[in-house]
Each structure stands twice: as structure tokens, then as C-alpha cells.
Amino acid sequence: MEGIVVIKCGGSTMEQLPDRFFQAIAEIQQKGKQLVIVHGGGPAINSMLERLAIPSQFVDGLRVTCEDTLQVVEQVLCGQINKWLVRRLSEHRAKAWGVSGMDGGMLTAVQTDKPLGLVGEVKKVDAAIPLAILSHGYLPVIAPLAVGTEGSQKYNVNADIAAGAIAAALGAESLIMVTDVPGILAPKEEGTALIPKTNPREIEQMIQEGIITGGMIPKVRAALDALSEGVPQVVICRGTAEDLLRVCQGETAGTAIVSKAAQVHA
To answer: What does this protein do (predicted)?
Structure first.
């Protein structure tokens, strides 16, 4: 299916998203563009874990997930954040339908071999459910949880990684990663400067040089995976209506990561 744009909304940006963002989503949908939202919920998960006296641990920007943590992740992502997003979208006349990656076995994963506990690496995306939702004129809003290949175990999946896998499975024309920074920033003599366009080779170089660090690393790794699976571009940008509209119209915003090595930033 052509004309699909997958939007990943980070948990750190969720409460900062202005009304105009949701209005832009509705406008884009009403013009016939097919949108899919995959969301995180890190701060809300951290807050609930703190209330329950369950410690939060991270390795290379990824959450370590024990059984107790997984129960909280499911509760917050599926019961709180997902329905909040659907409600906000509906308030602005966007047609939204909330699901999780576990529903219908949309996301199938195996446990990562990294020391992260019950965190899954996506092995398969069944696109039937999001495509069915899209075919009825709704925008799928997807919480990034997955079922194990045996069908019983559930896994926490990093939202960036889930969004990349879903974008690839849907043959999306773009994956937009909405975050709390304007894109990938490079150090300059005075402060930093936005990198408008880059490619996988430069991404690897920036990781080695320490320009890309922390939580941005899994984000760009997910972007590179999506590119390798055929997604033409991944855009990292702020959650402004202007950036969203520009990307959906084929214009530039934030940092565009593209697979063609010739298309590099100045």
C-alpha cells in the first residue's frame, strides 16, 4: 500500500504535543494520507514504577524489563497512553483506533540476548491489522508490545524499533520520529547546528565520534534498520505541526536519514 507515513511519538514529548499537532494529523488524514502512530511512554512508566517502588534501569538507552516492570509497561502503554492519544486525536476530528502489538499477533518477538530482561527483538510484523484499520479510514495508534513466537510470553519493545519494523512491513514512504530535539545536532564553535540530511555511513561515524549518544543511539539504529528494509527515509524532528506537514508534503524538516550515500549534509 502506497502513501503510508508512520509517526513515532516519544514518551518524553507526549504531554508537550500542542493542539496544533493533533489538528495537523486530522488535516493530513482528511486529505487522504494514510497515517500510523507508534508511541512510547517512558516518563509515565518511570512515574508509575517510582510510585510502586520498582527501580528503573537502562542499558544503552534501553529499559531493563523484569516481570514486574513488564506489567507496569503494559498497564501504562495500553491502558493510559494509548487511549489518551486516541482521545486527543478524536477531539480534533481525526479517526483513530488504538491497539497494541500483541493484538492479533501483530508484533512477534524473541527475547533479546542483551542484558535487558523481557525485552523483545521484533522477528515478524503481521501488517493485516494496521492495513485493515487503514482500509476502514482509521489511523492505527499502536502500543509497542509483542508476543513471543510461541504465543504465550509478552515482551516490551523499544518504540523506535517497533516503529521502524512496522514502517518497513507497511512499505511506508516515510518514518517520522517525533522527539524533544529538532533533529541530530553536530557541535560547532558556538553551540550546535542541525544536520538536515545524513546517511548510514555518517550515522556510524557520528556514533563513534560521540556526536550521537544515549537515547539517540537506539533511535538512529532503528532508523538504519528501517532503511535497510526499504523505507526510503526516516526523519527525526520535533512534534510541531509545521514539521509534520512539511514531511508529509515531501519537504524537509528536522534531520532526514536516507539510504543513498550521495545524499549527505553539507
So the answer is: Catalyzes the ATP-dependent phosphorylation of N-acetyl-L-glutamate.
191 appears as a binding residue in the annotation:
no
Q: What 8-state DSSP symbol labels residue 119?
A: B
| DSSP string across 22-38 | HHHHHHHHHTT-EEEEE
Residue 42 annotated in active site: yes
Question: Among this protein's residues, is 154 annotated catalytic?
Answer: no
pTM of the model: 0.92
Q: Is 42 annotated as a binding residue?
A: yes
201 to each of 44, 107, 206, 229, 258, how far by Cα in Å? 35, 29, 9, 16, 10
Looking at the domain covering 4-258, what would its CATH class be? alpha beta
Residue 86 pLDDT greater than 50, yes or no: yes
Is 41 annotated for ligand binding?
yes
Give the number of other Cβ atoms within 10 Å of residue 245's Cβ. 16
Residue 1 in this model has a pLDDT that exceeds 50:
no
Q: Where are the domains of the chain?
A: 4-258
